[in-house]
Design goal:
CATH architecture of one domain: 3-Layer(aba) Sandwich
Structural class: alpha/beta
Strand content: 15-25%
Mean pLDDT: 86
CATH superfamily of one domain: Response regulator
Distance between the termini: 22 Å
Number of helices: 7
Shape: globular
């Protein structure tokens, strides 16, 4: 993402404050999904909402602001968010700029080697191909929960 494009994405953020200590101070895990597909959001909610705090957002602006407000323990982020200017990888970069310890797992139907490498090269903690096996969502969530209990921070780095 070019510098001016990053600046444009930052314009969508309505407020900025330091919530980085929230993760260590709360239980259960806080999980955020940013995906414009309501079916994906519903499936992940069905898997996780009974045990964890869960929030889903369907667009980039809502997702960025909810992320910075909640500082979730883990974010499941779609790449193709239906926005003509930005995609999930742009959101990933913006989130990591504001929260370098973010646990972001990309979920995408585009599982090309280039797409997966780009996600990891831009700081993703994981990648799940759509349609996803529910066990992968649970696996990343349990890994995040285990790392939080052991105070290890980032998922796979």
């Amino acid at each position: 993402m070019e510098q001016d494009q990053s600046h444009e994405l930052d314009k969508l953020i309505l407020f900025k404050h330091d919530n980085t200590n929230l993760r260590s101070l709360r239980d259960p895990l806080h999980i955020l999904v940013i995906d414009d597909d309501p079916v994906t959001c519903h499936l992940i909610k069905k898997l996780l909402a009974d045990k964890y705090y869960f929030r889903a957002c369907g667009n980039i602006q809502e997702g960025l602001n909810d992320y910075l407000f909640l500082m979730p323990d883990i974010l499941f982020l779609d790449i193709n968010l239906g926005d003509k200017t930005f995609n999930g990888l742009d959101v990933l970069k913006s989130i990591l700029k504001h929260d370098p310890k973010a646990n972001v797992v990309i979920i995408s139907s585009n599982g090309t080697t280039e797409n997966i490498e780009e996600a990891y090269n831009n700081g993703a903690s994981g990648f799940i191909l759509k349609p996803f096996n529910p066990s992968k969502i649970i696996e990343y969530t349990h890994k995040c929960e285990s790392n939080k209990k052991n105070q290890e921070g980032i998922l796979w780095n």
